[in-house]
Automatic annotation (TrEMBL):
This is CCA tRNA nucleotidyltransferase. InterPro entries: Bact_CCA-adding_enz_type3_sf, CCA-adding_enz_C, NT_sf, PolA_pol_head_dom, PolyA_RNA-bd. Residues 170-223 form the tRNA nucleotidyltransferase/poly(A) polymerase RNA and SrmB- binding domain. Belongs to the tRNA nucleotidyltransferase/poly(A) polymerase family. It comes from Paenibacillus baimaensis. Its cofactor is Mg(2+). Its EC number is 2.7.7.72.
Length: 433
């Protein structure tokens, strides 16, 4: 039985055909249907020109007229209807801004990247598969349409798509396709970092990131980005083996970067180069920084807490301080990584004992934090100033507030206004602020 979204797609096909145009389902939906995978969206290719599509349907959006794409809206669903086209002249190893409309489905399929993405279905459900996409999928192979060198030279992004599809669908890259990919990897320098990031994000969020990372490493393609990435230092020895078990993108990226051994500043720099959002950069940075704080804290005066109770106390202290500095979310990220690979910390400078203590107590420690941000303190900067006669505002205020937060969070000082102010007075006097 067809779902509503699929029925809608066939309605669009039929309507186009009744007007004398050719129309087919194409691309990802055909591939995913053959594989009995859920279809995300139905794309349609037609001999009708964009203006004709606009005229024919009641609700349309002129999504990309210069590329021949009109979005047709039926009920709650959107269908991208694209005029048969070929991509005449590729410029600078990227897909061209201009396309040429054509009359033949076959030529339209020919410009597509991989055989499994170059199949079509007509309105009766007949498969049109001129390049043997179905057989390739059955043999577990990912293969370029036609000459792989030409395909990758036309559009270098296809090399990253190749690695993504191979990992996502568990396919081996066919030999000539792989050879061409390795030979042309240096063409990746023509691709904007943003597009590289989008492909990498999908690989990392995907079903088998380790496979994708393995292919990235063995092709050497990460060394060929337009702007250099520290991520390119990845090698087979430090693969984040349990990455597919992590649910969140932040945790996956943190785990990946930490596995390579990058410090927080290097991670931040790579993520900036890759044009990640400021918020995601901050979150991953904080998780990494919290991890390194824990590691450095443990390395300091190591001999003082070889005994379990002392080690536990020390860890609790560092964990809570880390939560104040970098936020609870940072530790949850580290905690989740540890939970999927308990021995992970061992190869990153933290003993197995410490790791297992963190794993058994870490959540409790976070819950036990009565306060974790200045906002929750029962005293603010203004009140502090009001109680400190003759003192003018200055950096000392922040210093005092941070001290109060730390003492309260660690359970050494109740979060009560008068006690907080008394402690503040002591602190100012003692430190000569
Ligand atoms: P998914 O959406 O799951 O990534 P998809 O196959 O639908 O898979 P899209 O990027 O949505 O991928 O593209 C739709 C179709 O357009 C592809 O199946 C392919 O036929 C064609 N296509 C997309 N990008 C390229 C490209 N860079 N070079 C050649 N053909 C492409
Ligand atoms: Mg798609």
């Amino acid at each position: 039985m067809k779902g509503i979204m699929e029925q809608g797609a066939y309605t669009v096909l039929t309507k186009l055909q009744k007007q004398g145009y050719e129309a087919y389902l194409v691309g990802g939906c055909v591939r995913d249907k053959q594989l009995h995978r859920p279809v995300k969206d139905y794309d349609i290719a037609t001999s009708a020109k964009p203006e004709q599509v606009l005229d024919l349907f009641e609700r349309t959006i002129p999504t990309g007229l210069q590329h021949g794409t009109v979005t047709v809206v039926l009920g709650a669903h959107h269908y991208e209807v694209t005029t048969f086209r070929k991509e005449a002249a590729y410029e600078q190893f990227r897909r061209p801004a201009e396309v040429q409309f054509i009359d033949s489905l076959h030529e339209d399929l020919q410009r597509r990247d991989f055989t499994m993405n170059a199949m079509a279905l007509d309105q009766h459900g007949n498969l049109i598969d001129p390049f043997g996409g179905l057989a390739d999928m059955e043999h577990g192979l990912l293969r370029c349409v036609g000459d792989a060198s030409e395909r990758f030279t036309e559009d270098a992004l296809r090399m990253l798509r190749c690695i993504r599809f191979s990992a996502e669908y568990g396919l081996e890259v066919e030999a000539a396709t792989w050879k061409a990919l390795c030979e042309h990897s240096l063409l990746l320098k023509h691709i904007a970092m943003e597009r590289v990031r989008m492909e990498l994000e999908r690989m990392i969020a995907g079903a088998d990131p380790v496979k994708a990372l393995g292919l990235l490493v063995s092709s050497g393609i990460l060394r060929e980005t337009k702007q250099a990435l520290k991520l390119a230092q990845l090698n087979p020895q430090h693969m984040p083996a349990a990455i597919h078990l992590l649910l969140e993108s932040d945790a996956r990226w943190t785990y990946l970067f930490l596995s390579i051994g990058l410090n927080a500043a290097e991670i931040e720099a790579d993520m900036r180069v890759l044009t990640f959002s400021v918020d995601q950069i901050k979150r991953v940075y904080k998780a990494a920084a919290a991890f390194y704080m824990l590691r450095e804290g443990l390395l300091l005066n190591q001999d003082e807490y070889v005994q379990e109770p002392a080690l536990e106390k020390k860890l609790e202290h560092l964990w809570k301080l880390g939560a104040l500095t970098y936020g609870k979310a940072a530790w949850l990220t580290i905690y989740n990584i540890l939970a999927v690979e308990p021995r992970w910390m061992e190869s990153h400078g933290i003993t197995v004992e410490a790791g297992s203590i963190v794993l058994s107590r870490g959540k409790e420690w976070l819950d036990a934090l009565i306060v974790d941000s200045l906002k929750q303190l029962q005293v603010g900067g203004k009140e502090l100033l009001a109680h400190m006669n003759n003192k003018s505002p200055g950096p000392w205020v922040t210093e005092v507030l941070n001290h109060l937060l730390q003492e309260t969070a660690l359970g050494r000082l109740p979060n009560e206004t008068c006690l907080l102010i008394a402690e503040a007075e002591q602190f100012v006097k003692y430190h000569n602020l």
